[in-house]
Amino acid sequence: MTDHSREEDMRIRTSLLKIVALAGFLLTASAVASEQQRPVASRLPCEVGSYLMTDGTSLDIGPGAQGQLRWRRPDGRTGALTPQGNGRWTSTLGWTSWPDGHHVAIRDCARGNIRFDDVAGRRLPLVEIDTRFQGSGIVLAGRLTLPPGEARVPIVVLIHGSENSSALERYSLQREFASAGIGVFAYDKRGTGASEGRYTQDYLTLAIDAIHATREARRLAGARAGRVGYQAGSQGGWVAPLAARIEPVDFVIVSFGLAVSPLEEDREAIEFDMERAGYGPEIKAKAMEIADAAAAIIESDFTEGYERLEAVKTKYGGEPWFESVRGNVTGYLLATPPETIRGEGPRLLEAVPAHYDPLPVLVNLEVPQLWIFGGQDRDAPPHETRRRLATLRSAGRPIATAVFPDAEHGMYEFEEGPDGERLSTRQPEGYLDMMKDFINTRMRASEYGSAEVSAGQP
């Protein structure tokens, strides 16, 4: 090992020790908060549930946009349901407005009967246990969903991305996994839904909350709890490994998350913007000047750097490639007046650790991991993350990766409209099956639709 390598290894280990020490303090301190009573979640429409169809397939019905429901199939197909009266609903493809020819009938919701096109089905009697539990200094609302019966099952705890909506209301995975024989614990992150506290994007605080959620899931599942682990999307890709390093679990699944910092994410997104538009290294270098100017504003907590950003906008605003610059946060900064940014920016990225380095955690994480990416993810391009994970895997870390080449952020396939905007149509075939197999320790090297899999079950 070279002197440089020794210094880097010591830096990583020192950083991790500081994180773990602070986490231990927060876990201890959080026990003193008192619980406040509040409903766990608002009442969902009667139609919401998982259904077993007479042809042996399964169907999930969940909340949709205002006044709508959403159906999902395990193979990734989905559609929005609009009521037509008398318990009938018509469907449009994915998240588009295009009719897809499907229709649903739920005329006696209380009895749990359904008809999808010409196939009948009945609601599965999933076991749902609502709870309120202690998070890091506040009280969180959660729900354990189990398959019917008394059998021991794996439990997956769902960790949020950066969204501020209620997971208890919106996360279909809590029913989709449960209908496939996997227990699920979902909870509203702090400051959302029925949970107490103030919304934050501080990864360590969110990791401590996830640890408390895992403990609550184990407590509620009791003798039915088998292997327990995390499934996390987007921002949760920074939170779940951190939680697993502080208090180990049996597995971690990261969907469309990254192993680089938030600022590096923005730079990679801009590079990908240039690649998709057909520009080469010279234009990429110019685009990085814009990324640097945007980063300076973020690093100052939105107090400084506006003149620098205006200067690069003036310098390059007339060049043809400029309109293709989107990035992650940079696009917002380019399109928004400085006076608006000064007011909105601190709230938009409140507590986000812009330079957070996930490597100290990942280098020392022995928990089996599955990282799943979209090859067309323009919000969180996975190129550098995949390279880092491949290096860690070569060094012996238990990491499997998979790429769905036609999927974007959120793991959605799409079509482009006349204006170039993406219209989400479905999730990739094999995405749900891959996660289910990994949780059950029987992941295969192929047979997951178009996925390109590197290494099987770690």
Mean pLDDT: 91
Overall CATH architecture of the largest domain? 3-Layer(aba) Sandwich
Distance between the termini: 26 Å
> Number of helical runs?
13
CATH top level label of the largest domain: Alpha Beta
Radius of gyration: 23 Å
User: Regions with pLDDT < 50 over 5+ consecutive residues?
Assistant: 8-13, 31-39
Q: What is the number of independent domains?
A: 3
CATH topology of the largest domain: Rossmann fold
Largest sheet: 9 strands, mixed
- The CATH homologous superfamily of the largest domain is termed Alpha/Beta hydrolase fold, catalytic domain
The count of DSSP E runs of length 2 or more, i.e. the number of strands, is 20
Q: Widest sheet: strand order?
A: 9-10-12-11-13-14-15-16-20
Strand content: 15-25%
How would you describe this structure to a colleague?
- The protein has 458 residues and is of the alpha+beta class.
- The protein folds into three domains: 49-123, no CATH class; 127-261 and 356-454, Rossmann fold, CATH 3.40.50.1820; 276-348, no CATH class.
- It contains 13 helices and 20 strands.
- It has helices at residues 3-29, 167-170, 173-178, 203-221, 236-246, 262-276, 281-299, 306-316, 330-335, 338-348, 359-363, 383-394, 431-439, and strands at residues 49-53, 58-63, 69-72, 78-85, 88-93, 99-105, 113-116, 119-123, 127-134, 139-146, 153-159, 183-187, 225-233, 251-255, 369-374, 399-404, 407-408, 412-416, 422-426, 452-454.
- The strands form three sheets. The protein has a nine-stranded mixed beta sheet, with helices on both faces.
- A hairpin with a 2-residue loop joins β4 and β5.
- α4 packs across α5 and α6 (262-276) packs antiparallel against α7.
